[in-house]
Amino acid sequence: LRELKVEDALLYLDQVKMEFGDKPEIYKEFLDIMKNFKAQAIDMLGVINRASTLFRGYNKLILGFNTFLPD
């Protein structure tokens, strides 16, 4: 496995943004989830639960998100 870089995260954000181009509120909600995690308002489990609910039916995004989770 290669080490993840900031560019990987930015590419993933672009994927999310493009996938929900017609639903910008979903992209914004994902950004809010990540901001809450960074601010330690929610833990990793909270992030996983919220993101998997938000991306339900979008397996490609869920798989992509899993790349960033700790083992």
TrEMBL record:
The keyword Electron transport does not apply. Keywords: Nucleus, Repressor. It comes from the Eukaryota. Pfam families: PAH. GO terms for biological process: negative regulation of transcription by RNA polymerase II. GO terms for molecular function: transcription corepressor activity. It is found in: Nucleus. GO terms for cellular component: chromatin; histone deacetylase complex. PANTHER family: SIN3A, ISOFORM G, SIN3B-RELATED. This is Paired amphipathic helix.
